[in-house]
Amino acid sequence: MLKVLGILLVTCSLQINAQNIIVLAVEDSWVPYSDHRGNGISKKIVTEAFSAVNRQVAYKVFPYARALRKAEQGVVDGVFNVTKQENTMSTFHFGQEPLLQADTYFYYPPGSQLNYKSSSDIPKNTKIAVIIGYEYGDEYEKNKHRIIENRVSKQKQIIHLLRSKRVDMAIMFEKVAEYNLLELGLSSTALKKGHLNSTSQIYVAFNKKRVDLSVLLDRGLRKLRRCRLPLASTDFPDLCPIKQDDSDEN
Q1: Are 41 and 76 in contact (CB under 8 A)?
Q2: Strands annotated E in the chain
Q3: In angstroms, rounded to a whole number, what is the distance separating the alpha carbons of residues 13 and 159?
Q4: How far apart are CA 42 and CA 231, in angstroms?
Q5: CB distance 51 to 220 below 8 Å
Q6: Phi and psi at residue 99, in whole multiples of 5°?
Q7: Which one-letter DSSP state was computed for residue 166?
Q8: Which of 104, 114, 146, 214 could form a disulfide with 95 if both were Cys (CB 3.0 to 4.6 A apart)?
């Protein structure tokens, strides 16, 4: 009888712990923020922020568009590396605190004479390479109906499309473009970098039923900010040890 009771107690304890673990989806192609295993700057910040409020996080790695769907469907509690814009805010719940800031630029094949200042300047039927499901700012969303998008799932595919001149241009996050060019053994001049497209605040987007988690994350991120470099840093953050919040019961 005691043995059975012990097994039941252990089982209940495991179930309670499992319920307390937050499950987040993360993309697999946004190095240095998130690599093919989901590791990178963003995951480090998310893990430390939730740890500061006594919560553990489990991660599931998907291509970005699928990660968004999993969070929207409630298969996971949320997804990160998402920007706040009209279409994402209608689908997800966001906290107040961003993880970091990242800039997107227009990129062109080497030797291209194109150099648009904004997405509203891009002519009709221009071929542009983008990542499936990515957000590139509200202005781009308003103008993309005029553009022929070549949507791919990997950053290196965009670089190959530009280098082979199969598209007229692309939009890439600056640090992501730099990292992938380096991995391919290419210099920064292998692509023509144009004007700034957008400056994005990067967030965790939660399923709309998990508003409670955004409150916890905001609390943890504010703790991190009090003792380290700004979250907009593009290098791996040197996170500081934080006394966990014993008052958090959720």
Answers
A1: no
A2: 22-27, 57-62, 78-83, 93-94, 100-108, 127-131, 148-152, 169-173, 192-206
A3: 49
A4: 10
A5: yes
A6: -75, -45
A7: S
A8: 214
The whole-angstrom separation of Cα 226 and Cα 215 is 17
- Which of 140, 153, 147 lies closest to 198, judged by CA? 140
**What is the CATH class of 103-199?**
alpha beta
Q: Which residues contact 31 (CB under 8 A, 6 or more apart)?
A: 40, 155, 176, 179, 180, 183
122-172 pLDDT, tens digit per residue, is 999 999 999 999 999 999 999 999 999 999 999 999 999 999 999 999 999
Radius of gyration of the chain (CA): 20
Burial of 167 by CB count in 10 Å (0-12 exposed, 13-18 middle, 19+ buried)? Answer: buried
| Helical spans, DSSP H, in 106-154 | 138-143
Tokens representing residue 179 in the block: 């990292």
Q: What is the pLDDT of residue 20?
A: 81
DSSP string covering 40-92: SHHHHHHHHHHHTTT--EEEEEE-HHHHHHHHHHTSSSEEEEEE--HHHHTTS
- Supply the DSSP symbol for 237: P
Would the pTM count as exceeding 0.85? Answer: no
Boundaries of every domain in the chain: 18-101+201-225, 103-199
Say whether 103-199 and 18-101+201-225 share the same fold.
yes
pLDDT band for position 216 (50/70/90)?
Answer: very high
